[in-house]
Amino acid sequence: MWPFSSSKSKxxxxxxxxxxxxxxxxxxxxxxxxxxxxEQVFYSTSREIVIxxxxxxxxTGDSLGPLTGKILKxxxxxxPVYGTLKDPVHALNIKTVLxxxxxTHHEPFIFGIDACLGDERQIGYILIREGSxxxxxxxxxVLPSVGDYHLKAIVNTLDPLTPVHSLNSTRLYMVLKLxxxxxxxxxxxxxxxxxxxxxxxQINVP
Length: 206
Prior knowledge:
Layout: E1 2-3, H1 10-16, E2 18-21, H2 28-43, E3 49-53, H3 64-75, E4 81-82, H4 94-104, E5 109-118, E6 125-130, E7 149-157, H5 163-168, H6 172-204
């Protein structure tokens, strides 16, 4: 969970990352736009892709990661998924989980997913950005930066005085809807990845 700067204009948001807003539309074309962006990211690396969903099931606003991880596990995608409702990845265990990922997977390409707080106009936005992120910024926790790429979803407004209240007062409907859209995007990318790799393997078979 980290804050999303409200001082940036909408134009800068568009230029900085691929995005969609579930408040404006979840039409097929918008979903496919994000699928295409994520395909560019995933297909450009030869490293093993690992999905890391950050968050706690004890806070509504912070439950985006575990909910997304649960749905992705149920969809049986070919990428390893860390962080579910059953086994969430949060402030208390993230260092241990990161060590487990590095010990289990050779030079993994970590794609992080986490909830974000912003201003009222930004609620419902899903953004994909290059580079790592620092979980816990919104609630002033010092945690290690993670990820080679990451996805953030803005679940509620940021109250700078009581950010924890912002998390606890977040509507579960919003979080669940965001998790479902994110999982659908990733599962489509995974399905296409599996298909394309299968075609390559068949071509290479003598």
